[in-house]
Each structure stands twice: as C-alpha cells, then as structure tokens.
Amino acid sequence: MASYLQLAPTLNAILNGTAAVLLLTGRGLISRRRIETHKKVMIAAFITSSVFLVNYLTYHALIHGSKHFAGQGWIRSVYFTILLTHTVLAAAIVPLVLLSLTRGLRRQDARHRAVSRWTFPLWLYVSVTGVVIYLMLYQM
Fold this sequence. Notes:
- This protein is mostly helical.
- The protein has one domain.
- Helix 1 runs antiparallel to helix 2, helix 2 crosses helix 3 and helix 3 packs antiparallel against helix 4.
- 87% of the residues lie in helices and 0% in strands.
- The protein is elongated and about 45 Å long.
- It starts with a helix and ends with a helix.
- The chain has four helices and no strands.
C-alpha cells in the first residue's frame, strides 16, 4: 500500500502526459485523413484518460486525500489559477469526450467535427495542466 501511495501521483502524471501525446497524434492523423489510425489513437487516449480518472479518484477519495501546495509568493497565484481552470475544465470535458467519441464511432462525421473542435483543445489543456500541477506539487 505504501508503494502505491508513493507511485500514484507519478502514474497520474504519466497517464496525463500520455493522453496529451495521443491527442496530438490523433489530431495529426486526422489532418492527414488517416481515419482508422486516428480512431485507434483516440480510443487509446480515451482509455488512458479513463484509467487516469479511476486512479485519481481512488487515490484522492479513498486513500490519500489532497496535497497542499507549499509554494509562496507569485507562484502560489499561478498554481491556483492553473488548478482552478484545470478542475473546472476537467469536470466539463467528460461529457464532451463521451459525445465526441460516440459521434466519431458512429461516423457522424459533421457532428463529430463540430463537438471535437471544442473537445480537443479542452481535453489537451486538461491533460497538460494535469502534468503541470503534478510538477508544481511534487517536484518543486
């Protein structure tokens, strides 16, 4: 149990970083019209983010609670601004991801593109800021 408590935050950062790389890869693939590969990569991004979410909720809700930011001065304001936007968008992104994924898998291409224009940048922001928050909490 102690090793899980020590490794969970790092695992969460790795999962968030992996999701960000997969999202960027998927975006590049669709811009080159590689639809089937795009589909596989985006499903991988969804699975990666889902594993992150389960691990995050398990770690924070059931095991550890939350970690307080120790930084002082201007960096504290930066941290809380990132944390606030990350948290709000993390809650908002779940239905957008599900809607985008559903429309993509059903090949409702126009409707998928319409929602994915919003889903992609928000999901990428949440994934990247998840890594930034980890670095600020555990590596500073």
